Amino acid sequence: GENVEQHPSTLSVQEGDSAVIKCTYSDSASNYFPWYKQELGKRPQLIIDIRSNVGEKKDQRIAVTLNKTAKHFSLHITETQPEDSAVYFCAASPNGGATNKLIFGTGTLLAVQP
Amino acid sequence: EAGVAQSPRYKIIEKRQSVAFWCNPISGHATLYWYQQILGQGPKLLIQFQNNGVVDDSQLPKDRFSAERLKGVDSTLKIQPAKLEDSAVYLCASSLIGSAGNNEQFFGPGTRLTVL
User: Fewer C-beta within 10 Å: chain B N or C terminus?
Assistant: First the structure.
């Protein structure tokens, strides 16, 4: 079955710096890759997603890149702010997204130091 | 629009007891998901419903876990009997449909279960 690996598990950056989180997936038929942000004690919330027919997507300070050949995708946050501090999860939808099932990575705890 | 609702928010039980969680998805969302999130891990899909039918329950421990969505709207997840390792946050999510196109899953606030 699909397996999603996520690195690093923790990331500490200074306010204003960039942060990069990387994920790899195993199912070459995966076609949808969302990123969720989860603040402490809160529900996961979608921040950006990308489909397999696109190589890069950007939304203000957040961007996601996808390399289908290497089966990895990354989240880039520029000009980080203290409110970016949270756990970030990547996910992949295997089997061509036939059922919209998501397999999540293990999460990255991002700490932005003011 | 109102989000995904879950209750209770917290539950503490002793091992071998039973517990039930309730979820009301966003109005009009055909697909409903139950996830288990153990501390320090990502959500793991337990079961997925499309209307009132089961799409995927491959990760559901069927000897102790059960779930239903009888009228295709709200859903209940039950654990009987509970084990210590069931301590986790149980998240409910919903999406418009369960196939490529409208993929975004909206999560509820979760139920934090502690088994003593």
Answer: N
